[in-house]
Each structure stands twice: as structure tokens, then as C-alpha cells.
Amino acid sequence: MVTQVSKRIIEKALAWGADLAGWALVSDLKKSPSVRFAPKMPYKRDDSGKASYRMNPKLNLKHGEVSWPEDAKSVLVIAVSHPEEKPELDWWVGRVNPPGNRVLMSVIDRLCTWIENEFRYKTGHLPYQVGQGGLYLKDVAVLAGLGCIGENNLLITSRFGPRVRLRALTVNRDMPVTGPLDFFPCAGCHKPCRTACPQSAMNRKIYDPADYEGMIELPGRTGFYNVATCDQEMQNNIKEAEPQIIDGEKGAARIIKYCRKCEFACPIGA
Fold first, then answer.
1. Long-range contacts, stretch 115-119, CB < 8 angstroms, 24+ apart
2. At what angle do helices 2-15 and 99-119 cross, to 10 degrees?
3. Which of 36, 37, 38, 103 could form a disulfide with 64 if both were Cys (CB 3.0 to 4.6 A apart)?
4. Is the pLDDT of residue 162 over 70?
5. Distances from the Cα of 8 to the Cα of 3, 36, 143, 169, angstroms
């Protein structure tokens, strides 16, 4: 019965706009790499003072910690393709969610309503940011079989490469997991993502297993990913944003176009 329900929910997600969808267990997520590594990470993105990284004070979280949703046992993660020829899906106009985010949120909202009405499960629509009550979505996606973490520190899917955006919901039932996959396309790759990065964020080993209790699943898989320099490029993107007229908006608006050079350089799914 539960297996059929889980399949029906995935089918609905795909019918309503998701390009990929899969299930992971909360119990497995609690042992995932980001959950174990992030609290030990010296660079504290959530202390940067930037609005997008601020912690929800009501959750009383420490750096890197997760607020596990009450009664949640399984997570459905969905991915929507974000091809290079549709950059506007991730353009930020002030604090207004980009079109791609609105698609993801709409699919999850619709699924939550349908699941509760159809199966009487308790659902939860997770926010994107961990500090706001979300989960580490890339870890969820790996456990759910959507792809793997590449050496560019991005989720890489076999169909779309790293050019996807993620969102998730929880249910208070144990659902059959749909992953992980035996998939790692970075082996033997000449790593064009590293040369494409304007901040050279993947050119030097930053983290060593010896400093993190022997953990081998470090950022960039082997510790060759510097989130601080990646964030610096994002801050540059904010400073460089210029007014522009786009479809669906009244008048010119200042549009932030975050760097995606490592995504575009990846040959998988291109």
C-alpha cells in the first residue's frame, strides 16, 4: 500500500511540473555529510549579516544545525530543470522569489494539499534555507536518487547535470526510498568547472579529513571547495546588478543574476 502511495505522489509531482522527484528518510538524513560537517565548518555563512542567510530566531539554531520537522519521517524532494537558455528562472528582482522558485513552491504547495486530502498524511512545506527551518537539500536529493555530489560541490543529475533547482516536503510516514544511485561522473573528468570559476573556489584543498574526525565526504567531495570565495562572487553579483526590464514586471527593476559558470561548464546533461 505505502509503495503504491509513494509512486502515486512521485507521479503527481512530475505531472504538476517537477522534472525529477524522489524519497529519502529523515533518519538517513540525520547521518548525512552536511549534517555532520556543517556545524564544524569554520566559515559561518549564517553570521554574515546578509538577509538571505539570517537564522530564524524562533528556532534557536546554532551554526550549521538543522531544525528537524516534528513528526516528519520521510522527505519528498523535487527538481526543476534550469537550462542555460532560461537564465531568468533564477533572476532575483529585489526580495521577490525568481520564477523558478515560484514553480517549485507551487508544485510543493499543490502536493501538500493533495496528499493531506487523499491520504490523510501530515505534510510540511520546507523553506529553502537551513537556518530558516529547511534541510540540506543536496543531501536529500542524493539519498533520494536524483544524483550525486560532484567535485564542483553541486548536485549532478544524469539527465540535467547540475542545472536544476530543488524544493522539498515532509510526510509523517516511512516511505520507500528511491536512492542513492551508483553514479559519479566526475571520475576521469578534466574538471572544466574549476577553471570556469571566477573566484578559483575549487583550486585549493581547504578541508582535510584529519581535521574533521576522518570525514571523507568533504565539500567538493575531497575538500577542494571554498564556500567563502564562492559567496564573495555572489556578493559581487549583487553589487553589479543593474536595472533591467523583463517580461511580467512593471518598469525597470534591479536584477541580481547569480554566477552559474561552474554549472554551465559541466559536460553532464549539457
1. 115/9, 115/169, 115/171, 119/5
2. 150
3. 38
4. yes
5. 9, 33, 19, 15
Question: Does 85 fall in a domain?
Answer: yes
Environment class of residue 42 by beta-carbon count within 10 Å: exposed (0-12), middle (13-18) or buried (19+)?
A: exposed
- In a domain, residue 186? The reply is yes
**CA dist., res. 268 & res. 217, Å (int):** 21
To the question of pTM greater than 0.70 for the whole model, the response is yes
Q: Is residue 270 part of a domain?
A: no
Q: Is the peptide bond before 180 cis (omega within 30 degrees of 0)?
A: yes
Q: Is the pLDDT of residue 51 over 60?
A: no
In a domain, residue 171? The reply is yes
Question: Dihedrals φ, ψ of 2, to 5°?
Answer: -65, -35
- 245 touches 227 (CB < 8 A): no
Total count of domains within the chain: 1
